[in-house]
Structure formats: structure tokens, C-alpha cells
Amino acid sequence: MANEERLQKVIAHAGVASRRKAEKLIQDGKVRVNGETVTELGTKVGPNDEVEVNGVPIDKEEPVYYLLYKPRGVISSVSDDKGRKVVTDYLPEVDERIFPIGRLDYDTSGILLLTNDGEFANLLMHPRHEVDKVYVVKTKGIPSKEQMQQLRKGVKADGEYLKAVHAKILSTDGKKNSAIVQVILHEGKNRQVRRMFDSLGFPVDKLKRERYGMLDLHGMNAGDYRALKPHEVKQLRQLAEKNVE
After folding, report:
1. Which of these is catalytic: 28, 105, 158, 205?
2. Which fold has domain 133-212?
3. What is the C-alpha to C-alpha distance for residues 113 and 240, in angstroms, rounded to an integer?
């Protein structure tokens, strides 16, 4: 029938779980369609079918995609038990149940993507997707050429190997003993930029993600958001799929 989609895709699109996790939920008997438990992965559902995961009905929403200029001092989450500001507070007019793709630290500002499309989110967060993430860092202290080279070769932090695709000093301030550095990453490990600079002895004063793939913050202020254009979603998908088999 027209408009029917595989059950695991519908669950992923609703942002409940990744497609792989959705498949496991189905196989484990945690999913019901119109009141009946379904364990068959090939099951297809239409717009009028009622789908429940762990007894909770899911909304089969149209996928939406947003870019937020995340301010500093905001949690990359949809809720916070300490009552702190979260990124979805900046998109009050969005009715869909969106969630951030990956995260930016509390003290980091810049581009953050939000969606209700679990499959798209998992694709972009795949460690091999190789989408450029461009950060601008203000450091306490001025790294040497050799230390900048070290960032590109890779540094060890907390027993983990962290590497920049590209790193260059944009400017230095001898009086304030600080530098502005551009860093490009493909991976997005927890607090990666800060940990890399800490390992070299240069604490990060300010950190901003200025670019994600071909997206930038042109014409935006902290706290602003906009819907991604269809061609931008398509380009991001192509960028990620190019490197993920």
C-alpha cells in the first residue's frame, strides 16, 4: 500500500531509537501495532496504524531539520534535571519532538543541528562520516608550530587518541598571551577540542563551532535558529553517505 513504511524506520523517524535499536526492540517483543505485539522485521505500517514502543504511543511525524546557533551556558539536551537551559528552549515554536544531533559542551557555542529523524542523526554521527566540523578556539598561552603539528598527528588524552584533520593559528596576542586557533575535526568525541589543548598545556578560554559540513552561522546571532533547506539536508546526507558503507 502507498505511504506504508517499515516499522523500524517509523520508530527511528520518531526519534525513539536508532534503526538498529528499533529492530532489536521489535525482535524483543517491545513493539505493538494496533494493540498487537509485532516481532517481524519486515512489517510495514501506514499513517493510520497505532505504533507503541514499550507501551508508549509514538507520533509518526514528518521529519524536520533545524540549525541552532547554540549560546554558551546551554545544555545540548531536551531536558535537564537541574533546571538549566536546554537547546530545545530556543525553538519554542517547533511542535515536533526534536533532539540534538550529537552535542556541544555547556560552555561551547556555535552550530548545533536538531531533528526528529533518528536515521539522519545516526548517519551524521557515524564515526566514519567525515563531515568537517570547524571550531575556532581561544587558548590561554600560544602554541608553537611543533605543537600545532602535534594536534594534526594526534595526541593522547585520558588514554584516548585524539586527532585534528587540520589546525592553524589565525592570530596571537603577546600581551594577553593568547591565540586564536582554527581546528577541523571529523570525529566528535566528548570535550575533544578542550582535551586536545589541555594535553598540550593550553587551556581553552573560548570555543565556538563555526561550520558543520557546508553550513555556517552567516547572519545569525547566538540563540537564533532556522529550518534547514531541503537541498542542505540532501547535501549533508550525501556527505555522510559518501564515507559510510
Report:
1. 105
2. Alpha-Beta Plaits (3.30.70)
3. 14
